[in-house]
Specification:
By secondary structure, the chain is an alpha/beta fold. Helix content is about 25%, strand content about 20%. It is built from eleven helices and 20 strands. A hairpin with an 8-residue loop joins strand 8 and strand 9. Helix 2 runs parallel beside helix 3.
Length: about 425
């Protein structure tokens, strides 16, 4: 098969916007010692379940419960699955997905737009290859910088051609299969999602895929989640095995999506800043995908925290540690490849609040006992929802204007509303952009 031609996806130069959206937050004084909080559904679970449920037997319904307040990343995956011809019906806190079988996806009439979701983009890249015709996948400005050309090239070894943008932008991509049995090299230093993408599309494969893994697998807990959910659908594949075997996808009739434990880190920061207790829904540690480490963490002491399995915690956790006992964050090198370089941008963000932390090769060195100060200008969030949410919480103590009115909706649509319900004064407005 001939390679698809590559093209430049860079748009022609445009003038910067005249104004940007910001959230203006006033300093908050809680009027009680404890408040009731909440967490969004786990997008890691929900995005994977959408793909697995869609591959169920033709006409079989899978009830996915616990979906209320799903974030924009999940909604992007849902819209893509629906564009592939899968019916999804809504009930209160429930999505009912009607299976189309392993070969029932239909060619979409338009681009599959993954918005900000790298998980959706990576899973769909493999999932659509079964169609045997070219499908275009795109995302927002942040996602356009998070494709991995070396991975796209490696897919040719199993029959998948991916043409992609050049220079800094690696999306949109044009994917054409079908995939064929074979051997593929995976670079595991940046993400485990490429492994998950292959595994979760094994129902459509016509033979085994042999993996040649380069380096240790990062975010292993997320990969283990994929293997666990696949096993509930009939897969006998194991994360310890270097060969992925096809399996008949038989999703259970009902699945319950847990809450997103990674968002507990924002609550920890709020509690630390205001000396309050926030009561949250209980999460089984087995569903926490690494974030269970927060339960036993004593922030009042100088501590070392390895985030090799939970790098999403880095920004709010670093802020909480700086205000409390300080310490060191390690094992988070792959956080450099998220919506922003979360190591260097965490340093930058905290510095705007007068909090000084030191960047290391795989994390941060944090001095404790620091107090945040009100920033002198608009706080940049670099299109990263976890930076924005951390900045919003810091602003509840000292006040600030935070770039990005809607960024939190990527993972937690009611985040700002819950703070306002607790008494935090938050105003959205547009301000003139500085050239």
């Amino acid at each position: 098969m001939n390679r698809l031609a590559k093209w430049s996806s860079r748009p022609s130069p445009e003038e910067p916007p005249l104004s940007i959206g910001v959230l203006k937050i006033d300093p908050w004084q809680p009027n009680r010692d404890s408040i009731i909080g909440d967490l969004p559904p786990s997008k890691s679970h929900l995005i994977r379940w959408l793909l697995l449920a869609a591959q169920g037997p033709v006409g079989k319904e899978c009830r996915i419960e616990g979906v209320e307040n799903a974030g924009d990343d999940v909604l992007a995956m849902r819209r893509a699955i629906e564009k592939l011809g899968v019916q999804i019906f809504d009930q209160k806190d429930v999505w009912i997905v009607v299976g189309v079988g392993t070969d029932g996806f239909q060619a979409p009439a338009t681009i599959l737009h993954c918005e900000n979701s790298a998980t959706a983009m990576r899973l769909l890249t493999i999932a659509v290859s079964r169609l045997g015709e070219a499908v275009m996948i795109d995302g927002d400005a942040s996602l356009r910088n998070r494709g991995v050309p070396a991975y796209f090239e490696s897919l040719t070894s199993i029959g998948i051609d991916v043409s992609h943008g050049i220079d800094e932008e690696t999306l949109p991509i044009l994917v054409k299969g079908p995939a064929t049995p074979g051997t593929i090299q995976l670079d595991a230093r940046r993400t485990s999602q490429h492994l998950s993408a292959l595994l979760l599309s094994m129902p459509s494969m016509k033979g085994p895929i042999v993996l040649e893994m380069e380096d240790d697998l990062v975010s292993r807990r997320h990969a283990e989640l994929s293997f666990s959910l696949a096993s509930l659908c009939g897969s006998s594949n194991s994360i310890e095995n270097q060969t992925l075997e096809p399996f008949e996808c038989l999703p259970p009739p009902v699945v319950i999506v847990p809450k997103d434990a990674s968002h507990v880190a924002f609550t920890k920061l709020l509690e630390t800043l205001h000396s309050i207790v926030v009561t949250l829904p209980e999460i089984n540690p087995s569903d926490a995908i690494g974030a269970e480490l927060l339960a036993g963490l004593d922030l009042t002491t100088n501590c070392e925290v390895n985030l090799c399995e939970a790098n999403d915690l880095i920004t709010p956790l670093a802020a909480a540690m700086a205000i409390s006992g300080g310490g060191k964050i390690t094992g988070a090198g792959h956080a450099r490849h998220k919506e922003s370089n979360r190591i260097s941008k965490t340093v930058e963000l905290l510095q705007t609040f007068g909090i000084i932390v030191e960047e290391s090769e795989d994390g941060l060195v944090i001095k404790g006992g620091q107090l945040p100060h009100s920033p002198t200008g608009i706080v940049s969030t670099h299109g990263d929802h976890r930076l924005q949410m951390t900045a919003i919480i810091l602003a509840t103590k000292v006040g600030a204007s935070i770039e990005g009115i809607y960024l939190h909706k990527v993972s937690d649509p009611t985040f700002v509303n819950r703070l306002m319900d607790a008494g935090v004064q938050i105003e959205s407005k547009r301000v003139r952009n500085q050239p």
